[in-house]
Amino acid sequence: MILMASDQPFNAVRFFKAVPLFLVIWIFCACANQWLRGERALLPAENRRLSRLLHHCLKMTSRATPPPVLLLLGAILLAYSPWPDRGAFDFLRGRETWITADYGLGYDISAAKIILNFLGRFVYGGSLLLAACAVVLLLVSRLSVSRLRKSRAAKVLGLATIFLAICSISDFYFSWLAFLTYDRLPALRWIFFLLFFLHWLVPVFLALSVWRSGSQRENHARLNLRTAVVFYAPLLLFDLAMTPFFLGDAFLPCAFVGLQLLAWGYLQLAILPEPLNP
User: What is the pLDDT of residue 278?
Assistant: First the structure.
């Protein structure tokens, strides 16, 4: 709906560019179907067939995109992200400004401009480094899911990747809100800037609660990961919905989606699901 409502002409070229976006959203739904799965509600007989069909489609998607596939796809997108626009290399060198520092929260807040420009470079540079580490990890584990789940390196890389993914989600989300409400409610920019930092602290509090959980640390960690998924899913879906505005520049969508795919791959490893019931 956002794609069709944009001021740019909606044609076949833009439609086919948006197809990968719909696939990414579907993959996220398939992953979330595993992460958040609980007791299935009893549905009326006339609705059970559709529910089973949807559940079966999501199940097949999950089987087609196991953690190694998600990690590999994320690494490929991040590796590809600098090439369509050479400005990405200038950004890493400090010659270009991060987009949310120019048009988002940093538009008229000088402190936010400096912070967001530094954090944008930190998140993107860290994403490229984590993508390279993910490729090495896949080679060492020989694409084995069981070896990846037992690897301490995978746990450390996964925590770092999930944290950067949350930072990226929060950055784009609150910058989009600031951009969309600037003409009508400019005073909200400082509130969004505060909320932006508070959303960075959520995973820190969750990590501290896991650290203090003692003998139940593993179960507590899985519960907190599911909590983080529920908390950030609306922000992520909003960011994905707004990516059609970046279709003319492949750098930002590839960098953002690639980092998210890496995070989903590590989440699949961390939240070990039982076999799905048909």
Answer: 38
- The answer for residues whose C-beta is within 8 angstroms of residue 156's C-beta and 6 or more apart is none
Residue 26's nearest CA partner among 72, 63, 61, 78 is 61
Among residues 217, 230, 212, which one has the least CA distance to residue 267? 230
Closest CA to 163 of 173, 155, 174: 155
Residue 2 binned pLDDT confidence (cut-offs 50, 70, 90): low
Q: Is the pLDDT of residue 6 over 80?
A: no
How far apart CA 180 and CA 186 sit, in angstroms, is 10
CA distance 255 to 54: 30
Tokens of 82: 């600098």
Q: What mean pLDDT value characterizes the chain?
A: 82
Q: 159 and 206 in contact (C-beta within 8 Å)?
A: no
3 or 115: which leads in pLDDT? 115
- Comparing CA positions, the residue from 44, 106, 91, 95 lying closest to residue 249 is 91
pTM attached to this predicted model: 0.86
Q: What is the mean pLDDT of residues 132-150?
A: 92
What would you measure as the largest C-alpha separation in the chain, in angstroms? 61
Instruction: For residue 15, give the amino acid letter.
Output: F
Nearest to 172 by CA among 95, 94, 259: 259
Residue 209: count other Cβ atoms within 10 Å of its Cβ. Answer: 15
Query: Is there a contact between 268 and 67 (Cβ–Cβ < 8 Å)?
Result: yes
Phi and psi of 7, rounded to 5°?
A: -75, -10
Q: What is the predicted pLDDT for the residue at 157?
A: 94
